[in-house]
Amino acid sequence: MSKDDSSSTQALEHRLKELEEKLRESVPKKEAEELKKKISELESHLKKYEAELEAAKRTIKDLQSPLRDIVSRLKDIVGEYGKVSLQYGGYEIAVTDPHHFPWNLTLDALLDASFEVWITRKDGQNVIRCKPPSV
């Protein structure tokens, strides 16, 4: 659970204790027991949803990891011969040394990741633009 989720949960627990205190002061005992039962049910639902949220977060992280790995992989491949930057939901690789640039390795890595790839020239410099496939 993230720090924000923990602090939100703590805030909710604190608020719950405050409300329970007010209940003890103002509501007859039978009604208080019914409300405590309802609170308990709601807490069990909350725990269920928290577990589902954590599972969803893990799934999102797993789905994003191939894209995160491609960035570090591209930076390793191009090394000092290019610069990788985030552009328009994809990446732009500025080729700083076209004679030593690892063209084949770079294009293979992008195509293996199913990226759409464009090669253009910008201010006299070769540029590879790429993005994940369109849906």
List keywords for this structure.
135 residues; alpha+beta; Gyrase A, domain 2; 2 domains; 4-stranded antiparallel sheet; 3 helices; 4 strands; rod-shaped
DSSP strand count? 4
Give the class-level CATH name of the largest domain: Alpha Beta
Q: Classify the fold: give the CATH topology of the largest domain.
A: Gyrase A, domain 2
How does the overall form come out from the CA principal axes?
rod-shaped
Count of separate structural domains: 2
Estimated share of beta-strand residues: 15-25%
Largest sheet: 4 strands, antiparallel
Helix content: 55-70%
Instruction: Look at the structure and give the mean pLDDT.
Output: 86
Distance between the termini: 31 Å
Secondary structural class: alpha+beta
Encode the helix/strand succession as letters: HHEEHEE
**Low-pLDDT segments, ≥5 res:** none
Radius of gyration: 27 Å
Strand order across the biggest sheet? 1-2-4-3
Number of helices: 3
In short:
This protein has 3 helices and 4 strands. It is of the alpha+beta class and 135 residues long.
